[in-house]
Amino acid sequence: CSPNAQTGRSKLQNKRATLNQQIIKQMRMRAGAENLLKATNNNKVKEMVLLELSYINADLQRLMGQLEGLNSSMEVYQNTEETANIPLIALGLKETKEIDFSSPFKDFILEHYSEDGRSFEEELADLMDLRQSCRTPS
Predict the structure, then answer these.
(1) SUPFAM superfamilies per the record (predicted)?
(2) CA max distance for the chain
(3) Fold of 8-77
(4) What confidence score (pLDDT) does residue 131 get?
(5) What are the DSSP calls for 68-115, one per residue?
């Protein structure tokens, strides 16, 4: 697993950041063009600025549409891997075998919490007793 590899969510976030930067740039250009439009008295310059403003507004609409599309995309959050679907059949505890879970739980505690699993033997015994009493209610 490469630390430089990007997940789908990080790619989506990078695209959002790029679009936001482009939108900010266009907004600044629009503000500058509007200021120039207010400041000038030359009709030819006003026409050029108005034309440029129409291009800027069109670009802004396009960028906003792309951002809206990214914000509404849910594919990146869906599991697209093709896996075999196996139906799960619910079993009652009475239909299960007696299993000692203490050893896997001790390993899990050691791996994930760096604690000695043997110090939790009493709690694991309580869990096993509870499971057994559910399997064979009196």
Answers:
(1) HR1 repeat
(2) 97
(3) Methane Monooxygenase Hydroxylase; Chain G, domain 1 (1.20.58)
(4) 83
(5) HHHHH--GGGS--------------GGGSPP---HHHHHHHHHHHH--
